[in-house]
């Protein structure tokens, strides 16, 4: 259906949950939300979401907001992340967690981000007291100047990989790699609220949001910018966030209560039930 359904290994995770082999992920008949979003689950210019096809979203607030903006056909299934946790309850679990994994806000293949990574690295060094792992998106990771800004402060710099596609294997283990890293660290932090923060909070990480939030070039006004995020989630910003509150918000934003059964997903996605050898 749409290429974004397969980013970060999402379709493979959902396929495995449904008992299907993942050599080639199945086509999903509809549009799958691929990251945390505080609009309606999809970008403002969502004309590529063909009318009449379902939208599989993470949380009810997105359904309600989408309905108010004229979108229809929403199905609440929660984030693919919750299906990965269901399948991998022990992956990456360590006896002792330490340090912080830090996710700077990143661009993507069609839009870059403007911001001062050197200044952000200095702020991280002043706030964090233990070892720091900085995880960059593959575009920033490929830039030696950006990597150097963090490595020169003594930070370990990693990348979970490219997000991949249906036919490439590059992104198939993206979320598995992320889960391993999050379960190894005591804290997860970023300069913006995003998927990684909620993923970390859902597996017991302490949460922090601080530093220059950086900006997309030509950032869409529909999102409302930093002011709107601060207004909606003031309690989720700062160098120290209440862990219980962060975990509660994460469960709501990731849609844990909407986890579907394998049979329900197969019906919604148009996957026939087959006995696999």
UniProtKB/TrEMBL annotation:
Name of the molecule in the record: Uncharacterized protein
Taxonomic lineage: Bacteria, Bacillati, Actinomycetota, Actinomycetes, Streptosporangiales
């Amino acid at each position: 259906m749409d290429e974004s359904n397969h980013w970060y290994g999402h379709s493979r995770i959902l396929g495995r949950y449904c008992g299907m082999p993942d050599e080639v992920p199945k086509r999903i008949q509809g549009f799958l939300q691929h990251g945390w979003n505080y609009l309606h689950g999809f970008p403002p210019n969502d004309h590529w979401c063909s009318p009449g096809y379902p939208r599989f979203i993470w949380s009810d607030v997105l359904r309600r907001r989408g309905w108010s903006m004229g979108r229809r056909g929403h199905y609440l299934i929660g984030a693919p992340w919750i299906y990965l946790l269901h399948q991998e309850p022990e992956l990456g679990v360590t006896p002792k967690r330490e340090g912080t994994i830090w996710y700077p806000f990143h661009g993507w293949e069609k839009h870059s981000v403007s911001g001062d990574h050197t200044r952000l690295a200095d702020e991280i060094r002043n706030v964090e007291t233990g070892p720091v792992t900085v995880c960059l998106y593959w575009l920033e990771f490929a830039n030696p100047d950006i990597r150097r800004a963090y490595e020169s402060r003594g930070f370990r710099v990693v990348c979970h990989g490219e997000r991949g596609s249906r036919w490439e294997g590059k992104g198939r283990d993206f979320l598995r790699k992320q889960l391993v890293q999050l379960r190894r660290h005591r804290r997860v932090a970023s300069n913006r609220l995003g998927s990684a923060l909620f993923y970390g909070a859902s597996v017991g990480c302490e949460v922090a949001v601080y530093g220059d939030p950086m900006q997309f070039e030509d950032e869409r006004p529909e999102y409302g910018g930093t002011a709107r995020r601060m207004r909606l989630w003031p309690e989720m910003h700062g160098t120290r966030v209440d862990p219980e509150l962060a975990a509660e918000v994460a469960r709501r934003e990731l849609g844990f209560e909407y986890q579907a059964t394998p049979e329900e997903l197969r019906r919604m996605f148009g996957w026939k039930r087959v006995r696999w050898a």
